[in-house]
Amino acid sequence: ERNTLATVVGYVLAVGPEAYNDQTKFPKGPWCKKGDWVMIGRYAGTRFRIEGGEVRIINDDEVIATIADPADVLHV
Question: What is the dihedral of CA 30, 36, 38, 44, to 10 degrees?
Answer without folding.
Answer: 70
